[in-house]
Design brief:
alpha+beta; Beta Polymerase, domain 2; about 10% strand; elongated
Length: about 450
């Protein structure tokens, strides 16, 4: 099999790889499957004498028969050259500059210059997320990506897939594998662990043994990452529609306890005569998956972050405060609410950079759920309670709670209240990520950290 273009063995830290080229007869991807605007960008790059490839998740999803969320492109053209080719574009990012090309209806195609392996030199010094504005070649760019299944290139000129890291083989075998030595790759960007379990959960893939061992051994290194980045990544997984599968992997790897440390003691010290909180948590996130699946296509159906966080914290609030199994009168419930808020401030506020209003809304939702459980009668409530401003949102949480407890499905019609209960218009996670990509996230109150990583 001939080597693909872009090889540069003269690079001082380069590990020379030979790509396998998959012809159009050896893979299912056709040009008709690719977004029209993405094709326009690639063709314009090619016509200007530059290479242009569909890369990463777009190739992965097309190979698996899915519709990609994004069609990202890589090229040997520099950002300034890309910018000149596309007047409807802008250069973003400091840690790594890329070009966003704008189209109708707010569509954005991101074009990046192939990156050098020097940022993640497999034999180089141990550095955490070093600057990576170094341009490279196809083989170098493939080796610096996170997972083998995300390291594929599609060339529209001859309709071939270019594979340096056996990503196609892992797709065929349903395997999640990190590129390179997993411990080093995790050390340089611990969020790779979350990406590995994310793609395992979403695609029902098995995580390769060495990758899994490295995740389990290094899960605490997530604490080095910017808290806002962890928050966004976690909510992205919770809203993915595969939260139940994600939850099982996150617990088994202990990533879950790094993200939500208040659950660690609860899992260890639960009473032996009662069901393990993991069981009920799994049922709660399964309810979330089902509702998101049934509401697909309804753009107005977006759960507020505080609602999903309250859903996640139901077993914790019960185990620690017996919030739902014991009736708490007014003053006692108020004191418990204060203690819950203190716990959220101390254990999650900083850990996930949760804004104050979100913590307050989460606390209120949990305590109001206790009120609904205390005053229910045949799933009905007195008029004074139904007239409360918080009743609509709390009744939806109650329905989710009861579905997890007894299997009675939440009526999809009840989701119609979601636009009314958001504290503020909630931006979808993928849009928040799109705006953040390419921008450095710096940790607050931290001296000496680089590129968003906090010093211990």
């Amino acid at each position: 099999m001939p080597p693909a273009p872009g090889s540069n063995p003269s690079h001082p830290s380069f590990v020379e790889l030979t790509a396998r080229i998959f012809s159009s007869k050896e893979h299912p991807i056709t040009l008709e499957m690719i977004d029209r605007d993405a094709l326009h960008v690639i063709k314009k790059l090619n016509n200007a004498g530059h290479s242009g490839y569909l890369v990463g998740g777009g190739v992965r999803d097309l190979y698996l028969g899915k519709t990609p969320k994004d069609f990202d492109i890589s090229t040997d053209a520099r950002p300034g050259q890309i910018r000149k080719l596309f007047p409807n574009s802008t250069i973003i990012g400091k840690r790594f500059r890329l070009v966003q090309v704008f189209f109708h209806r707010s569509k954005v195609i991101e074009v990046s210059t192939l990156r050098s392996l020097s940022e993640f030199d497999l034999e180089g010094p141990e550095s955490v997320l070093a600057p990576n504005n170094t341009f490279g070649t196809l083989d170098q760019d493939a080796q610096r990506r996170d997972l083998t299944i995300n390291s594929l290139f599609f060339d529209i000129r001859n309709k071939t897939i270019i594979d340096y890291v056996d990503g196609v083989g892992d797709l065929d075998k349903s395997i999640i594998r990190m590129v390179g030595e997993p411990n080093k790759r995790i050390n340089r960007d611990p969020v790779r662990m979350m990406r590995a379990i994310r793609h395992s959960a979403r695609n029902n893939f098995v995580i390769e043994e060495q990758t899994w061992k490295a995740i389990c051994a290094n899960h605490q290194k997530l604490a080095l990452c910017p808290s806002s980045r962890l928050r966004d990544e976690m909510f992205k997984d919770l809203y993915s529609g595969s939260a139940a599968a994600w939850f099982e992997l996150a617990v088994d790897s202990e990533i879950f306890f790094t993200l939500l440390p208040l659950y660690r003691k609860i899992f260890v010290n639960h009473p032996t005569d009662s069901p393990h909180p993991r069981v009920f948590l799994s049922k709660l996130v399964s309810v979330l998956d089902r509702l998101l699946s049934e509401a697909t296509g309804q753009k107005s159906v977006l759960f507020p972050d505080f609602f999903v966080l309250a859903l996640l914290l139901i077993p914790w609030a019960e185990m620690k405060y017996h919030l739902f199994s014991q009736q708490q009168k007014g003053s006692a419930l108020f004191q418990i609410a204060k203690r819950i808020r203190t716990d959220l401030d101390q254990d999650l506020g900083v850990q996930l950079n949760l804004r104050r209003s979100l913590r307050q809304e989460t606390t209120a939702l949990l305590t109001n759920l206790a009120l609904l459980l205390q005053h229910r009668h045949n799933d009905s409530w007195p008029k004074w309670l139904r007239n409360k401003s918080y009743f609509a949102r709390t009744s939806l949480l109650y329905s989710c709670y009861m579905e997890a407890l007894s299997g009675n499905f939440v009526p999809v019609q009840q989701l119609e209240i979601l636009p009314q209960i958001s504290e503020e218009p909630r931006q979808p996670v993928h849009e928040r990520e799109s705006q953040r990509r390419g921008k450095p996230a710096f940790s607050s109150k931290s001296k000496g950290g680089i590129f968003g990583f906090r010093k211990k």
